[in-house]
Design brief:
heterodimer, A: 446 residues, alpha+beta, Beta-Lactamase, Heat Shock Protein 90, 10 helices, 14 strands, B: 124 residues, Rossmann fold, 5 helices, 41% helix, globular
Amino acid sequence: MVNTDKEYNKLLLEIKELKSQVSEANEIIDAIRRGEVDAFIVKNEDDHEIYTLKSADKTFRIFIEKMSEGAITINRDGIILYCNSSFAHLINIPLSKVIGCPLSQFIPDVYKDFVANLLEKAWNEEECKAEIIFRGEKNLPIPVLLSASTLEIDGGLSLSILITDLSIQKKSEEQLLQKNKELEDAQLVTKSLNDGLERTVKERTEALVKEQKRAMEKKDEFITIASHELKTPVTSIKGYIQVLRFNFEKDGNAMAAQVLGKVDTQINKLTTLISDLLDVKKIETGKLNYREEVFDYNELVKEVIEETGRVLTKHTVKHQLDETVLIYGDRNKIGQVITNFIDNAGKYSPQNTDIIIETFKEGNKVKLAVSDSGIGIPKSQQHMIFDRFYRVSGAKENTYSGLGLGLYISFEIIKRHQGNIGVESEEGKGSTFYFELPISNSLSHE
Amino acid sequence: MNNAQKKIFVADDDADILEVIEMILKTDGYTVDVTKNAKEIFTQVQENLPDLILLDIWMSGVDGREICEQLKKNELTKNIPVLFISANSNIVDITNEYSADGYVRKPFDMAALLKKVKDIINRN
């Protein structure tokens, strides 16, 4: 009996102990349910293991709740199992009226089929992203990005859908597009203005060039006409005089022939004056043509000396030429410069004096000098003598003929041939006019 | 063959120059044909082929360069030497460009003109 009582009491104690353990376990479960347990510490054979409960779940719940994107999960029938407040706010419907309803209820009619197909893809684990437009507060359109993927919860499959509001992004894009368009429009306007400006500049330039060309042509035309008109009568006068002179000589009338010879000389002077005037006009308009070739220098110098010597009968023309060289240039125009120097020497020096023509080969240059024993040029005037229209000034200024163009033309011709021109003179004793030209190294000129 | 058998044709629109050239050429005994009307040159030259043609470049409305070009293209006249006679400052270039046989600048020297004519006539 005693034993029976003892056994009974033992069992009672065990029951009490077990009840206490069950109660404690129930309290823990309740605490877990109430979210009051953060973690378990479980003692193993040789270690402790910590199992957290509250922090992981709560953190993710809060994260999902607070995020600005809408988040929903639906089951296979399209019923919304969970929805965060962002989505409810987006479609402007209270949260309580969203959960448990079919998602299609909140999709605008135009997108219903599209979204259904889209979600079907997501259920099939295919990539699923698309932009649609929801209707929000006051039925205003809200562009969103839907992005869905399957989610396994409690052994069952559901679909999680993230809804990102693209309003700001779209607005920025629109603004960017608008700005781009404005920029393009502005560029078009700029281009059109530039084109217009270019066209105007081109037209104006063309008109100006045409006008200048016309003016140049007029000047050219004037030079050509003047040359023709002035030289035509001189040609016939000179021709008649020479025929007459020929006939007088043939008939033995020396006096008449001599007079006509003088007339002929004057006509030559007139011809030179006409040519000089036209040359100056051509230099001014840049139309003095040069016919360049390689030629034997001494041959030209001798030719000129012979021609001028025939006219300068009252002077003794002497020459001393260095070895000949080749020159690349306009033979006629260089001859014109030598003629001008010799003519001037004759004009400004007394009769029966010598005119000396010399050439000197100096390095890669050749110098030609024409010296006279004439009136000379004062030092103060020497720098002006190659100026256009310069003439001897002073007491004797009206006793010498000429327009003062010869030395100016000579200066231009020598300058054009990369040469130097100058004078050494002493008043009352005479002058030496000289010019230097570069020597050409070969018969053919590159 | 003396100069009388040598015939020179001269074309210039200035009557005085034409006359004076004729007088000058005749001092050396040449036979001279002249024309003031450049358009008649072809008819005259082809009717009576000369040994030399003296051609002015600028003849009221007619361009001596073109006439030279045509003369040089024509089978009958292409071998007749042509001397340009002109005050044109580009006469050297024009002579080369239009394949003329020489040139004489106006105003010309009688002796120089006769020498040039003689040289060309003898050359041919």
